[in-house]
Specification:
By secondary structure, this protein is α+β, with helices and mostly antiparallel strands. It folds into 2 domains: 15-104, Immunoglobulins (Immunoglobulin-like, Sandwich); 114-176, no CATH class. The protein contains 3 helices and 10 strands, in the order ββββββαββαββα. A 5-stranded mixed β-sheet has the order 1-8-7-3-4, with no helix packed on it. It has a 3-stranded antiparallel β-sheet with strand order 2-6-5. Helix 2 (117-129) packs antiparallel against helix 3. It is extended and about 65 Å long.
């Protein structure tokens, strides 16, 4: 669930887990770390949370080495981030991307539903198709339409769509763990090289 492991990445991560160590380094020939400073500003996309990270200089590389005690306080969510190098009166942007921060699992209590949105909706749709009552089914919506107002064929189409999302989530998780995804890649070559 994270791009970060025990080694320093050579680029900013796109995913990280709160409550773990975060390590990356960057090097720019036009902005040597012994004279320039590098600061990252991360803002959660809904505007609720934020954090800043200042890189340090190590052998003329900008290094971020955050301990788990620091990242433990970062709220889960998707953050827009920008990184700026500065020296005296000069300031330039060198990073503009998003970082997805996952929850610190050790802080989650018993009874917490850890299923993804796609898994929850898929289970609700299957319950409706099987004729079971789903608690507060009227609160579920797909493409702006209430599940209770969908006919059987629309429910089947929605079930197929959400099943494909769940399968994709599982494949992505297996790929991150270095496991086989069950996906077959086919190639067909025509012509000469």
């Amino acid at each position: 669930m994270s791009d970060i492991d025990n080694k320093f990445l050579n680029i900013e991560p796109q995913q990280a887990v709160a409550g773990t160590n975060w390590k990356w380094k960057r090097s720019f020939s036009q902005f040597p770390a012994n004279t320039w400073s590098l600061t990252y500003y991360f803002r959660e996309v809904s505007g609720k949370y934020s954090f800043d990270i200042t890189a340090t200089n190590s052998d003329n590389n900008f290094v971020v080495n955050l301990p788990f005690a620091t990242t433990n306080g970062y709220a889960p969510g998707v953050y827009s981030g920008q990184g700026f190098v500065s020296y005296n009166t000069d300031k330039f942007i060198i990073y503009d991307n998003q970082l997805e921060v996952s929850e610190n699992f050790t802080l989650q209590g018993v009874g917490r539903d850890t299923r993804s949105h796609a898994q929850k909706v898929l289970e609700a749709i299957k319950g409706l198709l099987e004729g079971k009552f789903v608690e507060d089914a009227s609160s579920y919506s797909i493409a702006g339409r209430s599940i209770t107002k969908l006919d059987v064929q629309e429910l089947i189409n929605a079930k197929n769509y959400y099943e494909s999302l769940v399968v994709m989530e599982i494949r992505n998780q297996r790929a991150k763990q270095g496991l086989q995804t069950g996906q077959v890649v086919r190639a067909r070559f025509t012509g000469e090289f």
